[in-house]
Amino acid sequence: MNSQDMATLCIAGLCFFGIPLLVVVFLAMRIIRSRQRATRIKDIESKFGTEFAALIRKKQIAVGMTKEMVALSWGNPTVVDDKEVTAENIKERWVYGAQRGNQRYVWFTSDKVTRIKT
To answer: pTM higher than 0.90, yes or no?
Structure first.
């Protein structure tokens, strides 16, 4: 058997066994990801409540959310500035986006969102 025959057999074997195997692996990975996502959603709901969890799933934020909730929804900020520490609380502003005019701002007082500007 020459190398061309071996290559033909190899390709035939891949078509016969490889493609269905790839499909099975792909479907299994989708099922696993779907279950992991469902578990994450349940964890978020049990930790933050259904109202905030629904906002996080939609990539939205609201006054009253914590820094952790905002980071889950929008990711980490581009910049944290205007930080002010007093004996009573900590105030800071999170900035999302690098370009002026396209930035979103979130103000926190003692770990809670107090104002949003999009």
So the answer is: no
